[in-house]
Each structure stands twice: as C-alpha cells, then as structure tokens.
Design brief:
The chain is mainly α. The protein has a single domain, classed as Tetratricopeptide repeat domain (Serine Threonine Protein Phosphatase 5, Tetratricopeptide repeat, Alpha Horseshoe). About 75% of the residues lie in helices and about 0% in strands. The longest helix has 20 residues. The model has no long low-confidence stretch (mean pLDDT about 95).
C-alpha cells in the first residue's frame, strides 16, 4: 500500500464522516480496490450505499453494479435496477437545471 493512498483514504474517511458524498464514493473505490487499505467489499458497498442515498450518481452506479453481481452484498437484481434508474433520473434532472 502506497503511503499516498493511505493518506488519501484518511482524508476521504474524514470527509465522508462529515457527510461529503464524493468522499464516501472515493472511499468506497479505495476499499473495493484495496488501495491504501486492505480490500473490503462489504465496507465499500456500505459507503457506496450511503453516498447513493445522499444523491451521488457515481455511487448509485457503483452500488447498482455491486448489487447486480453480489459483490460485498447479497445479489439483488431488482434493487440494482432501481439504483440504475435513480442514477439515470438524477442525471437527466441535473441536465435540465
């Protein structure tokens, strides 16, 4: 693990705990890839879900993929489809503003 990755994880974690959805998403990516921390698919899914619930489109897509494939969570294609739909809706809505 590179020191810079570990430092990035620390910064993302601090911002995630303050409610920053992009930091939650970034932390999820680091956990999923095992960059700066040991790989932890369950924790990655948890952070993607939190960020998705906060409206982060990338997290919605990532969480949908994890649900679809059963990575770190129980496989649930219906829930994955719901998250993909929410991501598309938000992207469309954001373009209209």
């Amino acid at each position: 693990m590179a020191k810079s990755d570990a430092a990035a994880v620390d910064r993302f974690r601090e911002a995630a705990y303050r409610g920053n959805s992009q930091a939650m998403t970034n932390l999820g990516v680091m956990l999923l890839d095992g960059r700066g921390v040991p790989k932890d698919e369950v924790a990655a899914a948890t952070w993607f879900r939190k960020a998705a619930e906060a409206g982060n489109v990338d997290a919605m897509k990532n969480f949908a993929h994890m649900l679809s494939e059963g990575i770190g969570v129980k496989k649930d294609e219906a829930a994955a489809s719901d998250w993909r739909d929410q991501a598309e809706f938000k992207l469309h809505f954001d373009r209209l503003q």
